[in-house]
Task: structure prediction
Amino acid sequence: MRSISSAWKYAAAASIILLIGSAVFNYTFYTKYKTADSDLVAARVELQQQKELADAMHNDMGVMADKNAIPVSLKGMPDAADAAARIYWMKNSGDVYIDPSNLPEAPSGMQYQFWAIVDSKPVSGGMITTLKDGKTVHIQKMKSFGKAEAFAVSLEKAGPESPAPTKVKVMGKI
Result:
């Protein structure tokens, strides 16, 4: 039987120690890589949300800053004194935008509806969206009107548009 020289024993022990050290080193860096990767994914999601928010704010500012926009403040009625909304009526095109962010949250089963008063009669401008994907909706485009005397928002049963306003919450004249 041949004896193994001590140099080979030390080389084998060093190889085993290096193998174990390499495994620990690789595991540590793999764990850090996975953590960094998940942090990167979370940062990308946050960046996309912030980009969408910035785009929405840019669009809102564009409506408000338009030289053709006539702002119309809608004040709360006696039963909704704290409610308010703002309309941006484009005098050149008749387009109408509403900022419903100061309307109180609609009760369950109810929804806000936008109205224009045209020739002393209410004409529906569409249903208002106040929340989308859990976020408050700010300025949104409604149906266009060639002319209007005033604007109003009513609280109606959720679903299809109501043919006439029932509970007017805010109103304002041009």
